[in-house]
């Protein structure tokens, strides 16, 4: 090969290399791991009103159990199938949740490794083969036909610049992203239901009767009986039976506990008991009703009186509505119940983790409505209408309240006074003289 030919070959090779460098620019190629960064997770999901079902599954590492919650729009109403079809107040919350999830982008890819899922908290709570730690919250939105609109596993919080970031993964995929979002998708039953359980405001409360006692089932008698009545005049000043200076803060705590009462779970009553409670004839004694009531800590005694193993509280409102809240057995799932507390155990109520069954009834008293009405005015129908609505609502369910609310609703005389025993107050009734049950 001549020198001229060699030079020509070298020049041609150099030109080809230059051309290749121009055409194939390493700086313009995006590595596959970052190929979807910045994209929407579900670009076809554009209508926040489209979801008709939301399923949220949280995981409790302490008990190694998944806690599912499902809210669904069916038969023209929202309900919670995971909690016996209890009515849900979900339309606004679901729309806001859907809007927040709809806007999620894949802000930053952090890992493509399954081994990193636990440290990011994005292990699927349904994954049977995974370990017990690092499981996330799975959130699934579906339309009215059951088609998936969005499906996420929401993991741990992550510090990343300004704003609030979380690790997020799509089920069935390895890739983990950090996503800027303040969406708070709750798996708590109480966050999806009507919050105003009693439909009672603090200024409406006129009288509160606290009847504290516990039932000794072995001996068939009441123990620890303490009864007190708080009355409120038209000027808003409270007084207590037996005298004594009231602790205003504690009295206010009681009123707030009543008006802000929240339920954390429910269980349905048997049909025959429900039907009895929707009439004014009272509970008919049947084996099914007695067994159901007893399992929850409630007892029917002659002549048809209903007692509860942790006492009760009565409330009168300015509208003439009378409420009775009866506190039953420690509810399953609480610390005490799992530790062996059950029917027949003495009531303690000292732990905020001891959730309690609650049996609520409501009725209308026209004489009270007239008594509490403004001078010269007849009571309207709002009280009787409300009592009828509440009667039908309460008839269906045994409610479960938190241990904290249970304690607030059962203050002692010592709690409610300023610490000075009232002169001439009645001594406690000896246990031996209590009526049998």
List strands and helices in order, with pairings:
Layout: H1 3-23, E1 53-60, E2 65-74, E3 77-80, E4 86-87, H2 91-102, E5 108-111, H3 117-120, E6 137-142, E7 148-158, E8 165-169, E9 176-180, E10 205-216, E11 221-232, E12 238-240, H4 248-259, E13 263-268, H5 271-277, H6 287-295, E14 298-301, E15 305-308, E16 312-317, E17 321-330, H7 335-338, E18 356-364, H8 366-372, H9 382-395, E19 397-401, H10 403-408, H11 413-416
Antiparallel strand pairs: 1-2, 1-6, 2-3, 3-4, 5-9, 6-7, 7-8, 8-9, 10-11, 10-16, 11-12, 13-19, 14-15, 16-17, 17-18, 18-19
Helix pairs in contact: 5-9
**How far is the N terminus from the C terminus?**
119 Å
Helix count equals 11
Low-confidence stretches: 21-30, 334-350, 427-437
General shape: elongated
The portion of residues assigned to helices is: 10-25%
Query: What fraction strand?
Result: 25-35%
Largest sheet descriptor: 9 strands, antiparallel
What is the string of SSEs from the N terminus onward? HEEEEHEHEEEEEEEHEHHEEEEHEHHEHH
Features:
437 residues; eight-stranded antiparallel sheet; disordered C terminus; alpha+beta; 11 helices
Structural overview:
This protein is α+β, with helices and mostly antiparallel strands. The chain folds into two domains: 34-192, no CATH class; 202-433, no CATH class. It has helices spanning 3-23, 91-102, 117-120, 248-259, 271-277, 287-295, 335-338, 366-372, 382-395, 403-408, 413-416, and strands at 53-60, 65-74, 77-80, 86-87, 108-111, 137-142, 148-158, 165-169, 176-180, 205-216, 221-232, 238-240, 263-268, 298-301, 305-308, 312-317, 321-330, 356-364, 397-401. It has a nine-stranded antiparallel beta sheet with strand order 4-3-2-1-6-7-8-9-5. A hairpin with a 6-residue loop joins β8 (165-169) and β9. α5 packs antiparallel against α9. The protein starts with a helix and ends in a 21-residue tail after the last helix. 31% of the residues are buried.
């Amino acid at each position: 090969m001549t020198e001229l030919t060699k030079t020509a070959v070298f020049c041609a090779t150099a030109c080809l290399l230059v051309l290749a460098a121009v055409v194939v620019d390493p700086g313009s190629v995006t590595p596959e791991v970052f190929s979807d960064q910045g994209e929407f997770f579900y670009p076809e999901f554009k209508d926040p009103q489209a979801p008709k079902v939301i399923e949220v599954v949280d995981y409790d590492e302490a008990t190694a159990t998944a806690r599912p919650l499902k809210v669904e729009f069916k038969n023209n109403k929202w309900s919670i199938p995971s909690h016996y079809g209890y009515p849900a107040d979900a339309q606004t919350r679901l729309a806001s949740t859907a809007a927040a999830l709809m806007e999620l982008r894949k802000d930053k890819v952090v890992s493509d490794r399954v081994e990193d899922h636990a440290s990011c908290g994005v292990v699927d709570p349904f994954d049977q083969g995974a370990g017990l730690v690092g499981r996330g919250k799975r959130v699934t939105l579906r339309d009215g036909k059951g088609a998936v609109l969005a499906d996420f596993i929401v993991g741990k919080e992550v510090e990343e610049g300004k704003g609030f970031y979380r690790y997020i993964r799509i089920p069935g995929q390895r890739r983990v992203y950090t996503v800027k979002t303040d969406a708070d998708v709750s798996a708590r039953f109480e966050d999806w239901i009507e919050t105003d359980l009693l439909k009672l405001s603090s200024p409406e409360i006129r009288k509160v009767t606290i009847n504290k006692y516990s039932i000794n089932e072995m001996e068939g008698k009441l123990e620890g009986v303490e009864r007190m009545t708080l009355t409120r005049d038209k000027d808003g000043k409270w007084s207590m039976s037996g005298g004594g200076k009231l602790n205003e803060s504690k009295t206010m705590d009681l009123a707030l506990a009543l008006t802000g009462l929240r339920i954390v779970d429910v269980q349905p009553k048997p049909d025959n008991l429900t039907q009895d409670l929707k009439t004014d004839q009272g509970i008919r004694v049947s084996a099914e009703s007695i067994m159901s009531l007893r399992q929850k800590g409630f007892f029917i005694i002659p002549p048809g009186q209903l007692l509860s193993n942790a006492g009760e509280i009565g409330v009168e409102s300015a509208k003439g509505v009378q409420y009775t809240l009866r506190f039953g057995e420690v509810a399953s799932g609480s610390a005490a119940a799992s530790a062996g507390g059950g029917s027949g155990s003495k009531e303690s109520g000292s732990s905020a983790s001891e959730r309690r069954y609650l049996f609520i009834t409501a009725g209308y008293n026209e004489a009270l409505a007239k008594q509490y009405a403004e001078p010269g005015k007849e009571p309207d129908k709002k009280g009787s209408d409300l009592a009828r609505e509440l009667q039908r609502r309460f008839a269906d369910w045994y409610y479960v309240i938190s241990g904290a609310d249970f304690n607030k609703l059962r203050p002692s005389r010592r709690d409610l006074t300023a610490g000075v025993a009232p002169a001439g107050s009645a001594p406690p009734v000896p246990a031996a003289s209590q009526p049998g049950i």
